[in-house]
Every structure is written in structure tokens, then in C-alpha cells.
Design a protein that fits this description.
The protein has 308 residues and is of the alpha/beta class. 40% of the residues lie in helices and 23% in strands. The longest helix has 24 residues.
């Protein structure tokens, strides 16, 4: 048995969700793919997948073996590419996750441009407004907005995420613009319910003030909060990568512009620096180049509107 091919078959089955899909991607018969999987299980002495007529699921042994098999396949592809035989281009499949708002506003276009450079790299985008488990969800790279790094993970800062308090002109005409942070207590404030406390921490002149806030509408997705704010529902804290054009066009106005909100790092988060597959390494470098710099690209034209 060609053990490297067996590992590649196993990884493809997991990534694509079925033996048939993996066999098609690898240009082999379904029966051959099944034999490779069975041979790998015999060699490891453990069942790697629970197989039913409807779905496949990793066993505990399969979960542990997947990362090592993926690493071995990636190393083999790197050796071939560096040797210049056959596949000189990066190739493989990456599973990438970020929040829906960042993916819509910035990441999707970046992925398209990356694939123009590396057309043999397939990217599976998983968009969720929550922190995912990279191992459990088989994620190669997560784009996270956070100032901390989970133990056991590696993070590379790509850019800074600035947020602003903002509201529609209609809401401010109706309810009045707050003049002090304490005035926010009397306003309708929309809160993101995933990972955010019902309060705003505002910075001014080196001093911080925390104001409890509340309102009639909460949501677990940034795009929904933006839509509600544009419709005049109240005040919200929103990232500039998502509302920069709204601010520039005047469809949203800053609230308490002399106060700033604490920025967050936009991080590329992955499992290990060792033996990174070439496609993953190239993607991280590409995103760092695209989003990096003293000021993030989406903030450059509206810098005066977002900084206190």
C-alpha cells in the first residue's frame, strides 16, 4: 500500500465529506479510495471513520490521525514543488473561517485575488460569528478579532480593527445626539450578543469610562446590527471595515466622536508554525501583505472620520 496516497485519500474524504467526492477529486474509483482508507486503518490498527449510509464522522483515533496525515501530505507537496518536478504551483485545499461581516467586506475579495495567483489551491470558507475549535471543525486558518491568543494556537497580527459608535441621521434627529458618555444610558443601543458585554468602554485623553447600555434589539450577527442601525433603530458599536463607506457617505454618523473605542487585533490563527503546508503559508503571507501597514486599507480614505 502506498501509505502517502492512503493519507491523501483520508484527508480528502474528511474535507469533502464522502468517499465518492474524494475519489473524484483524486481521479480514482470509489472502490480504490475505499481500499486505501481500509489499508490505512489496518496499518494504524484503528478505525478512522464511522461510516453509515448517510454520513461519515471521525472517530477519536481519526481525529488524532487527521492532523498528522494532513501534515505529511502537505510536506510531500512542498517537496515536489520545491524540487520543480510536475506540480511547481502550490496546490491543495484549505478550510478558512472568519466572521460573516469581515468575510463579506474584506476577506472574500482577498481570497479571489489569492486564487488568481494560485489557481490550484481550493478554499472552503466557513463563516460564523463565533469562535470555532480549529481541531474539531478541521480549520486550517481562522481570521479572528481579538487581543488574546488561545493556548496551543499560533497567531499572526494582520491589521488593527477600529470600531466606532454610530447611528443614522434620522435616529439622531429624533432622539438627539448624546453629548457625554453617560447620555448613552437614555438611548436605544444595539448589542452584539456573541462575546460582547452590554456596555461600552470609551477612551479619551488617556482615561477610560465604561457605560452600561441597553435597548430593544440585540443580534448575534454584525450585518443585522448594521442594517438595524441604518434603519434608525439606535446606536451601535460597529467595525470600520464594515461601515467605512456608510460613514463616508453620511448614511451613518459618529456618536461621541471625541471618544475612541479600544481597537482589536485582526489575527491569522492556526495550529502550528512547524511544517506548514505551502498553500497555508502562502495565504498567511498574502493576507499579511494585503491587510498590513500602519493603517488598514479600509481605514485609509476615512481616517479622519474614525479616529478621535
Amino acid at each position: 500500500m502506498d501509505r502517502l496516497t492512503a493519507m491523501r485519500v483520508f484527508v480528502e474524504i474528511v474535507d469533502r465529506g464522502s468517499v465518492s467526492a474524494a475519489a473524484e477529486a483524486l481521479d480514482m474509483s470509489r472502490a480504490m479510495a475505499s481500499r486505501y482508507l481500509e489499508g490505512l486503518e489496518d496499518w494504524l490498527g484503528a478505525r478512522l471513520l464511522h461510516r453509515t449510509t448517510r454520513r461519515l464522522a471521525l472517530t477519536d483515533a481519526g481525529q488524532h490521525a487527521l492532523a498528522s496525515c494532513r501534515e505529511m501530505v502537505g510536506l510531500a507537496e512542498d517537496v515536489v514543488a520545491q524540487a520543480g518536478h510536475g506540480a511547481a504551483q502550490a496546490q491543495g485545499r484549505l478550510r478558512l473561517t472568519s466572521s460573516p461581516s469581515f468575510a463579506t467586506a474584506q476577506l472574500a475579495a482577498a481570497v479571489v485575488d489569492f486564487q488568481e495567483r494560485h489557481p490550484k489551491v481550493e478554499i472552503d470558507l466557513v463563516m460564523v460569528d463565533r469562535t470555532v475549535d480549529l481541531v474539531q471543525d478541521r480549520i486550517d486558518l481562522a481570521i479572528r478579532l481579538s487581543n488574546r491568543v488561545d493556548e496551543g494556537l499560533v497567531a499572526r497580527r494582520l491589521a488593527l480593527c477600529h470600531s466606532v459608535l454610530c447611528a443614522s441621521p434620522g435616529y439622531l434627529a429624533r432622539a438627539g445626539a448624546p453629548q457625554t458618555p453617560d447620555d448613552l444610558r437614555g438611548h436605544q443601543c444595539l448589542i452584539h450578543t456573541t462575546g460582547f458585554a452590554p456596555e461600552y468602554r470609551l477612551l479619551c485623553g488617556g482615561e477610560a469610562v465604561t457605560v452600561p447600555v441597553g435597548g430593544a434589539i440585540t443580534a448575534n450577527e454584525t450585518a443585522v446590527i448594521r442594517a438595524a442601525v441604518l434603519a434608525g433603530a439606535g446606536i451601535a458599536m460597529l467595525p470600520t471595515y464594515f461601515v467605512g463607506e456608510d460613514l463616508a457617505q453620511g448614511s451613518l454618523l459618529r456618536v461621541l466622536p471625541e471618544y475612541a473605542l479600544e481597537p482589536l487585533d485582526i489575527q491569522a490563527v492556526y495550529l502550528s508554525r512547524r511544517h506548514q503546508p505551502m498553500p497555508l503559508r502562502l495565504l498567511i503571507e498574502f493576507l499579511a501583505e494585503r491587510f498590513g501597514g500602519e493603517v488598514a486599507p479600509w481605514d485609509r480614505e476615512t481616517r479622519s472620520l474614525i479616529h478621535a
